[in-house]
Amino acid sequence: FIKRLSFRLVMKNAIQKSAKIIAVSEFTKKDILKFASINAAKIIVIHEAADDKIMKIRNPQSMQSEIRIKYNIKNESVILYVGQFRPHKNIIGLLGALSKVKEFRPSVKLALLGKIEDKYISEVKNTIDKLGLKGDIVMPGFVLNEELAAWYQLADVFVFPSFYEGFGLPGLEAMAAGVPVASSNQTSLPEIYKDAALYFDPRSPEDMAEKILKILQNGKIKRGLVKKGFEVAKKYSWEKTAEETLEIYKEISN
């Protein structure tokens, strides 16, 4: 409670005193305006972009083969999640969706990539055991760019079940890597991913499972999402982000 209160006081003070505020999405801008009563013109939206370093990596087949051997991935379809292990990321909901996907497509593996948070991992493991998914989940933890690029290339579908995102970088990285995306319909995600994802209600494992299955079972839908994903990802670049940010500094300094 004390940390939360302190954060709110410090953040509100910073917002009030700032010359300009950069928000990574229109959703974030609206969130800031709800949080503090300031002139909307003070907030400038500048988007982020997929990591160019990851996208430029072209893994040799050996890296993908090593991953398959290490995590016992044979002919299964790979469902990929990349992100933090925190409650708002809704990994528990994704596990519930996986159990329903397996009713129609038993041969699947879910790869959960990202730094594993000690406070949350016990709930994740308990849910895995409760749903009988132990042999269907791999958790490599935090991985370096080369291995992350290989996971993107191995994936059949990327799923982003989050309840709250300011931007949603992992889904954009997946699109840039040619992976079809199924995404939560909450907060900034539809704004950033536009029509390049199949959206679901993150509070409904049934809806999430339905969208995952559509991608896994329908080649036309999958190819369409990949094509749209490339187009959307190209609209964002770190060079553009840097140029727009520089303009803000120039404006402030004048």
Detailed description of the structure:
With 254 residues, the chain is α/β, with parallel strands linked by helices. The protein is built from twelve helices and eight strands. The chain has helices spanning 2-17, 26-35, 52-56, 61-70, 91-104, 118-131, 145-154, 169-176, 189-193, 205-217, 219-234, 238-253; strands at residues 21-23, 43-45, 77-82, 108-113, 137-141, 157-160, 181-184, 197-200. The strands form two sheets. The chain has a six-stranded parallel sheet, sandwiched between helices. It has a two-stranded parallel sheet with strand order 1-2. β4, α6 (118-131) and β5 form a beta-alpha-beta unit. α5 (91-104) runs parallel beside α6 (118-131) and α8 crosses α11 (219-234). The longest helix is centred in the first third of the chain and has 16 residues, at 2-17. The radius of gyration is 20 Å and the shape is globular. The model has no long low-confidence stretch (mean pLDDT 94).
Summarize this, please?
The chain has 254 residues and is of the alpha/beta class. It has helices spanning 2-17, 26-35, 52-56, 61-70, 91-104, 118-131, 145-154, 169-176, 189-193, 205-217, 219-234, 238-253; strands at residues 21-23, 43-45, 77-82, 108-113, 137-141, 157-160, 181-184, 197-200. It is 54% helix and 14% strand.
Would you spell out the secondary-structure blueprint of this structure?
Layout (H helix, E strand, L loop, with lengths): L1 H16 L3 E3 L2 H10 L7 E3 L6 H5 L4 H10 L6 E6 L8 H14 L3 E6 L4 H14 L5 E5 L3 H10 L2 E4 L8 H8 L4 E4 L4 H5 L3 E4 L4 H13 L1 H16 L3 H16 L1
Parallel strand pairs: 1-2, 3-4, 3-6, 4-5, 6-7, 7-8
Helix pairs in contact: 5-6, 5-10, 8-11
